[in-house]
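Human: We require from you a standard protein entry with sequence in single-letter code and fold as tokens, and nothing else.

Assistant:
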Amino acid sequence: MNMGDHHSEVSSTPITPRPMTPRLSTPPMSAPITPRTRTPMVSTPPVSTPITPRLMTPPIISAPPSQFHSPSLSRSPLLSFGGDHVEPASKTPRSRGSRTPSFLTPIIRTPRFITPLGSPIRKALRLTKLDPQDAWLPITESRNGNAYYAAFHTLSSGIGIQALVLPVAFTILGWTWGMICLVAAFIWQLYTLHLLVQLHESTETGMRYSRYLQLFNATFGEKMGNIFAIFPIMYLSGGTCVALIIIGGGTMKQFYLTICGGAACSANPPTTVEWYLIFTCAAVLLSQLPNLNSIAGVSLMGAITAVGYCTFLWVASVAQGKLPGVSYDPITASTEVGRVFNVLNAVGIIAFAFRGHNLILEIQATMPSDEKHPSHVPMWKGVKFSYTLIAMCLFPLAIGGYWAYGQMIPEDGGMLAALFQFHGRSTSQAILGLTCLFVIINAVSSFQIYGMPTFDDIESKYTMRMRKACPRWLRAVIRTLFGFGCFLMAVAVPFVSNLAGLIGGLALPVTLAYPCFLWLKIKKPKMYSPRWLINWGLGTLGMGLSAIVVAASLYVVIDTGLHVSFFNPQ
């Protein structure tokens, strides 16, 4: 029994390993089964990363709204409209056998967004491409203008001293042809002004043409712009400032004599040159305002005073009645050629009365613009309001002035000179003084807006070369030198105000012809359509009329003589 027990005890030892799991669990770790449970081979589907670009499209849409009006938006990759941009699936090396099918690789077309907002955002981006340099220049430095600012600027620049000589044109044309030419010129220039407002921004290229010369160069080329556009546009800026100094300084002298009661006011009154200098100092001081939007208040004062002195002049003249022996027969020359050229010179005087087209694009450039609120909507509202007031001023001034004075109206000074010459004693001194004061304020205000294109052009040369904004001290120096340069020209050529017909002929294409050709070149209407025929007819007529008026004005100046007094203003 003991032997058996010992044997059973010894023999029981080999049986103990059976319940031991370590020895029985070795089969799951056998080599043939391990490839089946190896995770790298099973996890191959997550390697197909080309699906991830579908999730990366939202960041393209979530561009910050502030970029839509950024001056540097034109350099943004969001504006790369051309071509297809293919995003790589992954930069990790691919192993053999894990090649992704081609139909799983998406083609990303930028910026063709996959959301419904794609089309509006694309149009908005096209509309707001701006030149980064615009943020440094005085015309486009501030873009928070509105319809009210546009009305102030347009009214201040649209009514000027040139309107006072409208009755002089009636002395040659007579009642019938004078009214026909005045109405036709008003409708014609209002139509071309509407064309310029529409051409300011292009939905096709996304550009805003903030300057008349910029639009002309972009349409016809820089060479054509230097030949045909730069002289009349810059002359309408600098030349008008010279004329404003002459008229403003002379009116200051008249205001001084009116308030003081004649020559007894002072033993040594200021000379005419000194009055020019006083006016120039006031204009240069106001010209230090930084940009076009900052002079909106100045333009408002200019607009109010322009409407005021036009109203005073025609109301006071009509209230005094017709002069004794007044005649309305047209003045005729002794020769047939002289009569024709006199008529054309009168047409140039009427054309010179409607100015300001060289500033329309600059005024519209001060407004914000996007797809939902394009700038041409508030601009046209301001233009319609301002030109309603302009018509209410110019037509009564021309008709009332010619009715009151007839052929006796002075060629030099027009309505203002006639009021002092014929009714200086019978009219209240307060009315005379207030009229002179309004003329002075309007001249100072108009100097700012007409000088702004020249300031902008000079500063653009600096910013293009230095790649930075013009410092304040240099801006002040530029505007001061420009103002006193105009003063020297006014002293050297004080008779420039007598060349209204010649100046009107030179500036006539900018107002009546160029906008028609610009619209034809940019819009490309259907040949022989009504708009095509109208613009071709008006543009060709404007260019021909400009050449004829310039020739006629030169003939009249040579034939009748011009009192030339260089460096001797009277």
